[in-house]
Amino acid sequence: MELPLGFRFAGVSAGIKKKPNTKDVTLIVGAGPLVAAGVYTTNQVVAAPVVLDRGRTPSKSLRAVVVNSGCANACTGTRGMDDAVRMTELVSKYVACGEKVEPEQVLVMSTGVIGRFLPMEKIEAGISAAAGQLREGSDSFLDAADGIMTTDAFRKVIDRKVEIGGKTIRIAGMAKGAGMIGPNMATMLACILTDAPLKPEQAQRLLRRAVDRSFNCISVEGHTSTNDTLLLLSSGAAGGESLSADEEAAFSKELNDTCIALAVQIPDDGEGATHLIEIDIQGAPSDAAAHKIASTVAASNLVKTAIFGADPNWGRIVSAAGYAGVPIETRVLRLVVNGYLLFDRGEPTSFDEQEVSSAMRSNRKTSIQLQVGYGPGDCRYWTSDLNEAYVRFNSDYTT
Amino acid sequence: MELPLGFRFAGVSAGIKKKPNTKDVTLIVGAGPLVAAGVYTTNQVVAAPVVLDRGRTPSKSLRAVVVNSGCANACTGTRGMDDAVRMTELVSKYVACGEKVEPEQVLVMSTGVIGRFLPMEKIEAGISAAAGQLREGSDSFLDAADGIMTTDAFRKVIDRKVEIGGKTIRIAGMAKGAGMIGPNMATMLACILTDAPLKPEQAQRLLRRAVDRSFNCISVEGHTSTNDTLLLLSSGAAGGESLSADEEAAFSKELNDTCIALAVQIPDDGEGATHLIEIDIQGAPSDAAAHKIASTVAASNLVKTAIFGADPNWGRIVSAAGYAGVPIETRVLRLVVNGYLLFDRGEPTSFDEQEVSSAMRSNRKTSIQLQVGYGPGDCRYWTSDLNEAYVRFNSDYTT
Q1: B272 vs chain A: nearest CA distance in angstroms?
Q2: Active site residue A258
Q3: Do B225 and A319 touch (CB under 8 A)?
Q4: What mean pLDDT comes out for the span A192-217?
Q5: Do B44 and B120 sit in the same domain of this protein?
Q6: C-alpha neighbours within 13 Å on the C-beta side of residue A214
Q7: Which domain covers residue A19, as residue numbers?
Q8: Is the CB of A394 less than 8 angstroms away from the CB of B346?
Q9: Best label site of A199, A283, A299, B25, fewest CB within 10 Å?
Q10: Percent of chain A with pLDDT over 70
Q11: Domain limit, last residue, from A231, A246, A268
């Protein structure tokens, strides 16, 4: 992997998750001060670490991120807030990497079951162990990515290297999430790292722009989490004082593409998913309207079960667009699924149901293209299908 | 059953539904002119019969309602509109009951698969046969209620008799619906009959009031249908010219209770449902805010699967309330499930998970009481759980 310069990583097993020998504490530490930006859940019920991180970003002098999986530290009241702060103190106590890391220079992310207190002895042992294993390089980066997973069936990482203004700039990211995915400003947990020379406000602005077309355009079942956090950390180790306007534009495009490529992995791993559903809305009055239509179609259990069953029951898609709460032109409505035209200017087409069903069954990705008018708004959105495995999994998550 | 005076009913099998010998054409005919009110889906993608009925209610001179199941006549363009009008002409042609029924005096309801054309030869044979079987009394009323069902596991009817102002007034109703239930002004198909002496605008006003706390407070998966229609038909046969203000208030209360009792049967029959979920939101800023929180909790697949699994995973309920988009007071949040206090003023309580799980498993009804602040708004809302049977059923509905 091509990892940004200036970061060290570790992921260890601390016994927080039920399953033995699975990594559940992750550390990401900068060799020097890091520029940091963050976007967070808009849920009013927020986990303690989100409250803590919100007050610390954007920043130009962050040093570390500590993550635990297996317990969300959400709905845990004042004790939960104390525990989150304590995690930053433990990082300060155990990490020896360049200058001393102050507790205020640490961000925290937690994920797992809501409403339970963190097992702080295990957390301390985990942070201490992770601090001793901090390394540069792919192996430790992948350990760190493993340590943030919960119900994920696979690890979600990305890396890319680009030349911008004669400098080599690297961007890498890790994310987790397969359920309780309905981001509204951010998603479960994701962390993007770069060595580009960014300023704090610039990092915040570019991250917010990137999130609108990536993490805000995915869902599994549409349940907005209490812990959604997306961080961008920049070490500046690629060199240079700052990016020119042209360089910023080039970097912004790379950051957007990175976020999309990482975000799409989440619904692709939607709990039990057998299909990744890609929804393209075209011709809406605005991008926001297109987003609302796309997210409404994506949230429909009837659409999701039909796609699981490879059933070209297109009325469910069209009718979901109709109750999204934004104006559509029903006489213009045009629906194409996996390349087949099923509904054209408000009239049904005659198509071979078995042929379309067969195409839906044999492709992991189901493509839905819906034209809703002649407006300038569009949105590309991703979700997963809904099947019996999702139900089984989610009916006995805590008990 | 205690049925309102002045109505005749029939339900016959016309071969529209795949399953042989199941009733799929229903007629409800007034001995004389009927006062009629209707509320309809707010989906922008609407079925042809909804367009037709909207233009004909409220009215003081309706005569009949014809219903077919097995085909929704939705997304069928101009041909679908022609077919709906043709159904009213067929009722006029075949029904001989008192004065001649004009096509313009007929309402139409259709339900079933979206995007297919009505088999008009079968429809004509069905209307002709039903016209010959029109009778007063419970047997024909129940035939009519059977004729409107699609995926329903049981027939949904209600009847009640009350004394108002010295007069005996009867109210009866039938409804259908088990999937694609996310009403927004009305629900799938329901028809309330009464012999109270109502005026058209009065009927419309009372029906709209009744719907807000009944059919607008239920969901199965939250998918708003293209065909939602709720009608109120009054024959006036109970006698008297009109209701006094006191009598209207008494009638309105009965109508509300009737609508609630009928509406609750729909999520209780939610496709594959093993639990009826009753959600009480208290202390919201307004009733509308309470409704929004309740419907958001009801729409969460994570809440619904947890209840299917009798898993007291209360964080899912509280977090769903947090993203409903209306202000809540997180320090006041108080959650009681089946009588057990699980979350109190923003702090988790210690409770016996096995005991609560056991109570959830052994009761068909799961009661959720959530206080979100100290405001005056409240809402009682009903939905069903989500389980594997729902997924299986909906993954191969048309193919």
Answers
A1: 12
A2: no
A3: yes
A4: 89
A5: yes
A6: 27
A7: 7-268
A8: no
A9: A199
A10: 98
A11: A268
